Each structure stands twice: as structure tokens, then as C-alpha cells.
Amino acid sequence: MITKELQNMRPLKGDEKLERDSEYMGADDIDPNVEPILTIKNLYRGKITLSRGKEVKNVLTFVEETVPGIVEVRPLIVNSGNRQVLKKLFGQVTANALEGKKIQLWIEHGVRNPAKNELTDGIRIKDKKPAAGKTTTAAAPKCADCGKDITGSGSFTAEQIAAGSMKKYGRQLCVECGQKAKAAMEAQEKTAQENDAPADDLAAQLAAAAE
Ligand SMILES: [Zn+2]
Q1: Domain extent at residue 78
Q2: 168 alpha carbon to ligand 1 midpoint, in Å?
Q3: Are 150 and 172 in contact (CB under 8 A)?
Q4: How far is the CA of 150 from the centre of ligand 1 (A)?
Q5: Residue finishing a domain among 133, 150, 176
Q6: In a domain? residue 11
Q7: Which of 74, 86, 92, 137 could form an S-S bond across to 25 if both were Cys, CB 3.0 to 4.6 Å?
Q8: From first to last of its 211 residues, what are the pLDDT tens digits of the chain?
Q9: How many A from CA of 178 to the centre of ligand 1?
């Protein structure tokens, strides 16, 4: 069946995908056991849309678009606890004090969600500054396929290669395994295209038969 509301909508097709409800960073954006480091770009304060309506919130945006542990870096809504941590880390919570500063995130499990009165995972800012010059998590990124440390290549750092492969292939890969994954993906797409054609013909025949 289809509801009245859906009758006024167009179904998604092809590469169009189901999107998440919130455009802001959530705990599920962060890979398990990774404590990503991000650079604060700007501070915002104003009304934003949440699932329970519009509320005035503090929001941080970040310089990085992707980092190890977060495929797509979204703006972070700053709750009062995280605001306190920022104040402790940098003395003040002004734009001047925070812009360009690095922070490290971690996930606290079993946090009470007051809106739904249930336990959830919360994004916390670490109350220690990330070590100077260190832009990644404690462990060097490891290749998901061969298990070796991912190393920099050309003008790319190990972190950029890890993040790039995560975006493309859904896992962190070294350069070598990334090339293999690329070849495998292309082969798969080719097969999928070849298989698609007869399926379309079949659908057309069925549609014709139904008319
Ligand atoms: Zn590898």
C-alpha cells in the first residue's frame, strides 16, 4: 500500500539514497574505538532544527571534511558539558579563543537522553588537548585488508589515504589494497551492468504482459 502523503512524493531512484534525519554530528558518525581529532573552524549560536523542534544551540564547525574515524565530518552541537570542557581547555569559549584549535572526541555510552528518557551514546570532547602536531588517533591507521600500517604516499598522508579509502570503499586501506579494491569494484560494476540488461528486458516483458 501507499499512504496519501507518499502519493505526493516521487520514489527515490538509482543512486538516490535514504538520508539521516539530522544534519548534525551524532555518536553513530564516529567509528567504534576511534577518538577523532578535529580542528575548530567556526562557532555558531542560533536556532537549529532538532527532531523535537527548533532550539537555540551552540554549534561548532570543523576544518576537516573527513578524518580517520569519521567519514563525513558534520557540525557538532555543543551541549553544556562539552562547553565546560572547551572552557577548561582554552580558558574562554569565544571565537578568538576557539577558532583553529584542535579537539579530540570520544563516545560515552549509556548517556541519558532527556528528550526520550532512554539511554544513548553521547559525543564528548576530551578534557585533554590532542598532542601538538598529532592529527590522528593513537594508533597508526591499519589496512583493513592486509593488516599492515597505512603509510603516506606521494603528497598524501597516511590519514588522508585511510580516510579516502574509507569514503570510497567503506574501509581503511593501504595504497596497494586500495588499488586492488578499485579493480575489484570496477569488475563488479561491469558485471552488474551486464546482468542489468537482461533484467530490464524481463521487466519490460512483464510490464507488457500485464497491460
Ligand atoms: Zn593493505
Answers
A1: 21-133
A2: 15
A3: yes
A4: 7
A5: 133
A6: no
A7: 74
A8: 888 888 888 999 998 888 777 889 999 899 988 999 999 999 999 999 887 788 999 999 999 999 999 999 999 999 999 999 999 999 999 999 999 999 999 998 888 776 677 788 899 999 999 875 444 444 668 899 999 988 888 888 888 898 899 889 999 999 999 999 999 999 988 888 777 656 556 666 666 666 5
A9: 7
Q: Is residue 1 part of a domain?
A: no
Q: Are residues 183 and 199 in the same domain?
A: yes
Question: In 3-state terms, what secondary structure has residue 167?
Answer: helix
Residue 54 CA to its chain's centroid (Å):
23
CA of 140 to the centre of ligand 1 (A): 13
- Could you tell me the distance, in angstroms and rounded to a whole number, from the CA of residue 172 to the centre of ligand 1? 9
How far is ligand 1, taken at its centre, from the CA of residue 183, in Å? Answer: 14
Q: Please give the tally of structural domains in the chain.
A: 2
Cell of 204: 519490460
> Dihedrals φ, ψ of 183, to 5°?
-60, -40
Task: State in Å: Cα 180 to ligand 1 middle.
Answer: 9
Centre of ligand 1 to C-alpha 181, Å, is 10
What backbone torsions phi and psi does residue 167 show, to the nearest 5 degrees? -70, -40
CA 15 – ligand 1 centroid, Å: 28
